[in-house]
Specification:
There is one protein chain. The protein is α/β, with parallel strands linked by helices. It has two domains: about 10-70, Ribosomal protein L30/S12 (60s Ribosomal Protein L30, Chain: A), CATH 3.30.1330; about 90-235, SPOUT methyltransferase, trefoil knot domain (Alpha/beta knot, 3-Layer(aba) Sandwich), CATH 3.40.1280.10. The chain is built from ten helices and nine strands. Helix 5 packs parallel to helix 6. The protein is elongated, with a radius of gyration of 19 Å. The relative contact order is 0.14. Belongs to the class IV-like SAM-binding methyltransferase superfamily. RNA methyltransferase TrmH family. This is tRNA G18 (Ribose-2'-O)-methylase SpoU. InterPro entries: Alpha/beta_knot_MTases, MRM3-like_sub_bind, Ribosomal_eL30-like_sf, rRNA_Methyltransferase, SpoU_MeTrfase, tRNA_m1G_MTases_N.
């Protein structure tokens, strides 16, 4: 599509989830994020930058005023994912803030997590804030939006034990053995891990809190547990 044919109104509508789903398209802002998307098979439909779009319109499309790609929403199929022995999986249980989900994806990708399952309604992987917060990691790590039941069945079929992060657990996270197959469940900051996951847990672990504050941001909790697993696996390859 040439610059003269650009429908700015249509492109602007892709900031909204319903419009993205209806069009089957979404926006990717930033050269690094676009490069990662292309490397991982995302089909780019159109590129908008200063060479073909006015500065005013580009600023309306991109919060950062950068190069923007219009891309097809990729299909993600968890059924055919091949996991290595003793995989590390992260499950996000009812996390609502796209920025938190994106930050966790960035950490998970950096640490070599094998898959991330997003459950409980937070599953808009094409949200611009999520993509920005992930620095494009959403395109390079296996991540899937599943219902709770689908995710539990997925883990059960692969014999991956469920490890729940809970402030009420008797065992601290650094005493747990993360070297074996593990699915770490991160709950929302407001409500914690939901009952369906707590009932399926093989173990619960707590992050010690020594000050007046009694909880951490979900992305910080996830990073703490992910890198403890990485530390253990690095020391005992």
């Amino acid at each position: 599509m040439c610059a003269a044919d650009l429908n700015i109104k249509k492109i602007l509508s892709l900031h909204e989830k319903n419009d993205r789903e209806e069009a089957g398209l979404f926006l990717i802002e930033g050269r690094r994020e676009i490069d990662l998307a292309v490397k991982n098979g995302v089909n780019i439909v159109q590129i908008l930058d200063s060479s073909n779009t006015s500065a005013k319109n580009l600023a309306r499309i991109s919060y950062r005023g950068e190069i923007v790609a219009v891309a097809e929403i990729p299909r993600r199929d968890s059924k055919n994912l091949v996991l290595p022995p003793d995989p590390l999986v992260v499950v996000l249980d009812r996390l609502e803030k796209p920025g938190n989900i994106g930050a966790i994806l960035r950490t998970a990708e950096a640490a070599g997590v094998n898959a991330v399952l997003v459950c409980g309604g937070g599953g808009d992987l094409c949200n611009p804030n999520l993509i920005r917060a992930s620095l494009g990691a959403v395109f390079s790590i296996p991540v899937f939006c599943l219902t709770d039941v689908e995710a539990i069945n997925w883990l059960d079929s692969r014999k991956i034990p469920i490890i729940v992060a809970s402030p009420y657990a008797q065992k601290t996270y650094f005493t747990h053995d993360f070297k074996r197959s593990s699915a770490v469940i991160i709950g929302s900051e407001a409500d914690g891990v939901s009952e369906i996951w707590s009932k399926k847990a093989a173990a619960s672990v707590a992050i010690p809190m020594r000050g007046a504050v009694d909880s951490l941001n979900a992305s910080v909790s996830a990073a703490t547990l992910i890198y403890e697993a990485l530390r253990q696996r690095h020391e005992n390859p």
